[in-house]
Amino acid sequence: MSRQYQKETICIQSGWQPKNGEPRVLPVYQSTTFKYESSEQMGRLFDLEESGYFYSRLQNPTNDCVAAKICELEGGVAAMLTASGQAACYYAVFNICEAGDHVVLSSTVYGGTFNLITCTMKKMGIECTVVDPDAPEEELARAFQPNTRCVFAETIANPALVVLDIEKFAKAAHEHQVPLIVDNTFATPVNCNPFKWGADIVIHSTTKYMDGHAVSLGGCIVDSGNFDWNAYPDKFPGLCTPDESYHGITYTEKFGKAAYITKATTQLMRDLGSMQSPQNAFLLNIGLETLSLRMERHCYNAQKTAEYLEAHEKVAWVNYPGLKGNKYYERAQKYMPNGTCGVISFGLKGGREAAARLMDYLELAAIVTHVADARTSVLHPASHTHRQMNEEQLKEAGVAPDMIRFSVGIEHIDDIIADLEQALAKI
User: Is residue 71 within 8 Å of residue 202, measured between CB atoms?
Assistant: First the structure.
């Protein structure tokens, strides 16, 4: 593009740039493979001596256009799509960690991410120290070890809705010579750009707000290009020393600021294969076109719903960063002045039993595992997404036993509140 457009325009115009006579809308390159005229050229592609498409597990034109759009929204230098948000979490960490390494993890991250890093990756020899995201700087610093390779947190925690102090976490990570990886799924790049505040790598479950319609699984990793891997070659040998599986290529030397994403694409995707289908990328792109519009409505509806619940006599507590009395209100105003997300959480005076009954009485809001799409949905995290956690882990994750996660959709606000009202009347 000839100029830097606003995010609303990027959502629509970025990525696919058709030439004369080409389709105006991004096509689906539904092909596993691509034809070349000479064996020599194909060999250069496999040696990373030439760029191009040859097998969709590694790269696909549809996917790359969508990744480029998300990259521009986040202000990064390179991005890649994955088959799911969970795959994005795994690739983002595993790209720079191996057996014997260590991760500092925010305690309030999504339950699936928590389990991935603390349990599954532990079996791979990667250790983890869990920290309270609100811990003071001194306590946060004590979590680091000589073998720490990254810090992982969420801009808005799912479902605890803790707003991360990105600058504090970035400062701690950089003082210990490692990158900060941030999951920006709930805020989306429309409401928050973590790179602006010092984060180095951003990931998304594109399944959520970016797709927006609960039709396509996906994930994305975006690299800011700001972390100097070469300054710490002993910490990041995978990027700074020759990769024998590609004839001794050193990623930082050959690909510069694109080293991290190139390694994740050519090495991890090659070997592990969690690529996003071109059809899902096509659907994701359609969702991205209305992302800025939808986030504005999600945030408006969530604010009104939170205010309604806060005033209701049967509601014990409400957690939403847009409420002025919320613990994270000021921090949200700093990092996300245009809004946070459409997800709120609350508890009833009747406790856990009342929470379960309320969900059964709702008519418009559906009980689903999913969150952050156009339709209002509801979930009881302690029984569902976080059920693998014990009581102590639930407490660390900010998940109260009576917590109801309410994902406010883009329906008319009067209908959303009326649904809550009729359900609460039955409690």
Answer: no
Chain-centre distance for alpha carbon 322: 20
Cβ(41)–Cβ(35) below 8 Å:
no
Q: State the Cα–Cα distance between residues 344 and 122, nearest whole angstrom.
A: 32
Q: Is the pTM of this model over 0.90?
A: yes
At residue 255, what is the residue type? F
| C-alpha–C-alpha distance, residues 176 and 200, integer Å | 14
Distance of CA 311 to the CA centre of its chain: 32
Cα separation, 130 vs 325, whole angstroms? 28
- Rg of the chain taking only CA atoms, in angstroms: 22
Distances (CA, A) of 120 to 95, 149, 205, 269, 378: 15, 17, 19, 19, 28
Cα dist. 391→8, 386, 397, 398, 401 in Å? 43, 10, 10, 11, 9
Please, which pLDDT band fits residue 126 given cuts at 50, 70 and 90? very high
Three-state secondary-structure class, residue 101:
coil
Instruction: Read off the tokens for 404.
Output: 């109801």
Q: 163 phi and psi, to 5 degrees? A: -90, 120
Distance CA 109, CA 186 (A): 11
pLDDT tens-digit readout, 253-303: 999 999 999 999 999 999 999 999 999 999 999 999 999 999 999 999 999
Query: What backbone phi and psi angles, to 5 degrees, belong to 49?
Result: -85, -15
